[in-house]
């Protein structure tokens, strides 16, 4: 018997919504996208027209709908708390873009509401379910580098310059650790499990004077809130030590570093904001090699006329699909509210220890089962699409 599709709505029709909507309406069997919503009704109508979605609704109409089960929240982080809270209270399952909220106490409240109502709340980034990070998880779980001893992740970007164009980055959750660093933290959590202790140092973004390149109507000056530069340390429950470096106060030519060290080898990962970056294995007395990817969803886009943006981010939406299958199978979902809360707690407590000194002992934890290996996105040398959605079912 065919599984009943999950009727889904999308709130927020900005830039990232396009790759979500294309995939959610054309790549996956479990979703039935029936509505879109945006503060700008014209933007929502354009999305509905482009992707063949039957309804443009207000948030109030989505809350009142008897048929919509799942809502995908693609709004900026500063808006997440209010929107997610309303949706949960109206009885909807929610998948939200990162981070769950910009405040730890708000995230805890949302988790409590979801628990009380028996609802799913899933949190991006879903690159954690992509081929690269799942292959790295497989390599660690199967002992290819022995016992993990340590890890180091680093990313730099001129976040002020980025915020010239994307104005939502000037609000809570727009600093580099929250906007980009979360991909690195989520990847580490997926591969190495929960964190026990955190400590860090931080520095704010520099005040920005009005620029005329993108918008001559900007205020005279503005500043991204929170720490835009963080250097921190982690101790994982399994004993590994980690170093984090997220610098949004430097130039925009991004340099990504992601290494996991073990007693018998080293893994080098690419940008965890992507799905199919190479996984490089370094072993003693052997030349370094790239591991074959053990999982599907490597970022390849099998939809006609994919944009350059989608070719790099071609599998956005797999977290929504995994959640939808969890709803139908009545099983835990992998990008769980507990995992989202734990990732946010790491970020917030880097800020807290930067302000107060000392070491923070984590209060949350989570579990995240790996995806089944050996199910791929393509076949025949990449010339045709395969059925990687099977890896998201159970």
Description:
The chain has 394 residues and is an alpha/beta fold. Helices cover 32% and strands 23% of the residues. The chain contains 11 helices and 19 strands. It has helices spanning 17-26, 41-51, 59-64, 77-89, 104-117, 131-141, 159-165, 176-192, 308-312, 318-329, 337-356, and strands at 6-11, 31-37, 55-56, 70-73, 93-96, 121-123, 148-156, 195-204, 208-209, 221-222, 227-236, 241-247, 256-262, 266-269, 279-282, 289-290, 360-361, 378-379, 384-385. The protein has a 9-stranded mixed beta sheet with strand order 16-15-14-13-7-12-11-8-17, with helices on one face. The protein has a 6-stranded parallel beta sheet with strand order 3-2-1-4-5-6, sandwiched between helices.
Quick recap:
This protein is an alpha/beta fold and 394 residues long.
* Structural classification: alpha/beta
Q: Globular, elongated, flat, extended or rod-shaped: what is the shape?
A: globular
The number of distinct β-strands equals 19
DSSP summary: helix tally: 11
Strand content: 15-25%
As for the CATH topology of the largest domain, it is Rossmann fold
Named at the architecture level, the CATH assignment of the largest domain is 3-Layer(aba) Sandwich
Listing every helix as H and every strand as E from the N terminus to the C terminus, the arrangement reads EHEHEHEHEHEHEHHEEEEEEEEEHHHEEE
Mean of the pLDDT scores? 93
**What's the story with the biggest beta sheet?**
9 strands, mixed
* Helical content class: 25-40%
Would you identify the regions where 5 or more consecutive residues have pLDDT less than 50? none
Oligomer: single chain
Number of structural domains: 2
Strand order of the largest sheet: 16-15-14-13-7-12-11-8-17
Query: What would you give as the CATH superfamily of the largest domain?
Result: NAD(P)-binding Rossmann-like Domain
In the CATH scheme, the class of the largest domain would be Alpha Beta
Radius of gyration over alpha carbons? 20 Å
């Amino acid at each position: 018997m065919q599984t009943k599709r999950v009727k889904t709505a999308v709130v927020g029709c900005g830039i990232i919504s396009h790759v979500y909507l294309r995939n959610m309406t054309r790549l996956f069997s479990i979703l039935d996208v029936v509505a879109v919503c945006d503060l700008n009704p014209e933007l929502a109508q354009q999305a509905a027209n482009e992707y063949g979605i039957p309804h443009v609704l207000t948030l109030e109409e989505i809350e009142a709908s008897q048929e919509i089960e799942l809502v995908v929240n693609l709004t900026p982080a500063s808006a997440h708390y209010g929107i997610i809270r309303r949706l949960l209270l109206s009885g909807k399952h929610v998948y939200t873009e990162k981070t769950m909220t910009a405040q730890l106490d708000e995230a805890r409240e949302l988790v409590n509401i979801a628990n009380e109502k028996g609802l799913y709340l899933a949190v991006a980034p879903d690159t954690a379910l992509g081929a690269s990070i799942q292959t790295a998880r497989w390599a660690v779980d199967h002992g290819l580098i022995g016992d993990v001893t340590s890890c180091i992740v680093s990313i730099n970007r001129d976040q002020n310059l980025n915020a010239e164009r994307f104005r939502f980055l000037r609000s809570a959750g727009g600093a580099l650790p929250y906007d980009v660093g979360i991909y690195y933290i989520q990847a580490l959590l997926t591969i190495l499990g929960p964190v026990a202790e955190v400590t860090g140092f931080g520095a704010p973004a520099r005040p920005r004077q009005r620029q005329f390149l993108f918008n001559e109507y900007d205020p005279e000056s503005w500043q991204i809130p929170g720490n835009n530069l963080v250097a921190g340390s982690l101790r994982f429950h399994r004993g590994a030590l980690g170093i984090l470096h997220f610098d949004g106060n430097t130039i925009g030519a991004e340099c990504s570093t992601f290494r996991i060290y073990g007693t018998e080898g080293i893994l080098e990962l690419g940008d965890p904001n992507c799905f199919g970056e190479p996984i490089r294995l370094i072993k003693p007395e052997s030349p370094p090699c790239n591991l074959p990817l053990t999982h599907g969803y490597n970022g390849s886009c099998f939809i006609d006329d994919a944009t350059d943006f989608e070719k790099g981010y071609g599998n956005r939406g797999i977290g929504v699909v995994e959640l939808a299958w969890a709803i139908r199978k009545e099983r835990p979902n992998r990008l769980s509210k507990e995992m989202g809360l734990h990732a946010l707690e790491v970020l917030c407590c880097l800020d807290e220890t930067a302000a107060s000194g000392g070491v923070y002992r984590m209060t949350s934890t989570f579990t995240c089962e790996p995806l089944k290996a050996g199910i791929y996105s393509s076949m025949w040398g990449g010339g045709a699409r395969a059925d990687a959605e099977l890896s998201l079912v159970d």
